[in-house]
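Progress against Task 2.4 (sequence-to-structure conversion) is shown through the following example record, which the project officer requested during the mid-term review.
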Amino acid sequence: MNINKNTYNILFALLLTMSMAKAQVGINTSAPAGLLDINSSTMGVVYPNVSLTATDNPLPVVNPQGGSLAVGTVVYNINTTSTGNVTDVHPGIYVWDGSKWTIHYKKRQAELYEQTTELRTDSDFPGDWQDIPNLGVADNRTFTPKYSGLYRIIVKGNYGGGKMVDGVDVNVAAQEGAFRFTFNGVPKTFITHAYSIYNSYVNSGTHYTNIWKESYTTLYINLTANTTYSFSLEFDQSPAPGFVNDGNSGDGLGYIGTDIPCTVEFTYMDE
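C-alpha cells generated for the chain above:
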C-alpha cells in the first residue's frame, strides 16, 4: 500500500495527539498542565459520596481491580458515627493511606465559656457553694463535642481577698476557698487563696484588697460526639477571721473575676 506524504503527516499527527491524550487529560482546557487539569470558575469537583463506618475499615469502598484498596483513594464521607472510639468518622474528605482513612482537614474544636460579672464571696453563704455568674449550676451550661475522642478541659478561677480589720503596723492575712467544677455529674475541687494587706503607715492607714490570684485545674476526658454534657463552676469561701465581718458581709467579702473572669475551655486533642 502506498502512503503519500500528506497522508503520512496526518496519521503521525493523529498518533501524536492520541499519545498526548493518554498522558494528560484536560477538562475545559486544550492545554492541560498536569495529568488531569480541570478548568472552571463556577463548578467544583464532586468526590464519590460514601458512608464510612470507621477510619480503620476501607468498606464500603473497594478496588475495582480486586485486592486491597489503592493508597491515595479519595472519597467524601457523609456518615457520622458516635461510638466514642478514635475510629469514629464525621462528614469530610478522607484519603486511604494503606491502613486507615485519614481526614483531609484536621478535626478542630475549641470553645471558651466565661464568667460575665464579678462575684463577691460570702464565708457564711447558705449551702456553702456560690454559682460563678454565667458558669453556675443555675445557668445550666452544656458542652456538645463535635468528635469522639480525647478532650482537654482547662478551668481557671481568679480570686481576691476582701478587706481586713484595721490593725497597727503592717498586717497580712490570707482569705481562702475552693472552686468546684462539676462535669457530667462528677465534681472536681481545687483550693485557692489570696492575700490582703493593711498598712498603718500609708495615709494614716491603707487597705490593699482584691490582690487576685489565678488558680486552675486541667482534665483530660474521652467524650462521645454529639452527646450533650452538663458542667458548672462554683465557689465556697472558707471562714475568714481577721477580715471585716469575718468575711461574711460588706467589705469583708472576697472577690471573684473582678479583673479577669473565670473560664472553662474545651479543646479537642486527638488530631
